[in-house]
Amino acid sequence: MSESLEIDLDAFWSLIDQAKEHTGGPSEWLMEQLMDLGPEQAKKFDTIARVYMDAAYQYGLWTAASVMERYGCSDDGFMDFRAWLVGQGKAVYMAALKDPDSLANVPSYQDYRFDSLPHMGDYAYEELTGREVFQNFDPAQYSALKEELEKDILYGDGINYPYDQADIPAYVPRLCAKYLTPEEIKELAQSRGCTWNLTSAEVRLARQGPKSSRVTKTNRRKHDHER
Known about the structure:
By secondary structure, the chain is mostly helical. It has one domain (9-226). The chain has helices at residues 9-21, 26-37, 39-55, 59-69, 75-87, 90-98, 120-129, 139-149, 168-171, 173-179, 182-189, 201-206, 213-226. The chain starts with 8 loop residues before the first helix and ends with a helix.
């Protein structure tokens, strides 16, 4: 790989895709490429990965992750999930931000394929410099990249709504069918529970926003039937 390669958004996704082709050691291959490119490019790769992971911090995706984990998803678990999501490549990532239920088309989450790829910039930078990348965090670079990449993202309706358990089968029906038993889906649909911290100002604010139209329509049909 040319040492003059400049890591931009396209190069980032290209490296992710190329790494995935090295099924015997995708992380090792990517680490080698970033080491060859030098510390500044490794740092930029890491910054781009972090911005994409942060852009995926959406409650609707957290709901999807909880289904794919089967028994809920902790803060740390959701961080791992977002790294996994970036590691799947741009097409899967963008589709998930538009509709988390599209992740039903992706191979099973339980094997955690490629979840380490977004961290390779951090590892390469530390190996090259002896310093952790956060020690040289550049807020201006982060903000510029965030503004650039968000131009390509199309967030789906209700992507940042903290859904109640009863909403989950309607919000991500295909994921539920893939990861849950019919009995578990029925229990969710009949649940009166909420797993979110309703004392959190952030959660309360998010719950003032709209739900997915798919959930709203499903709930409206249910309400009309009950009447």
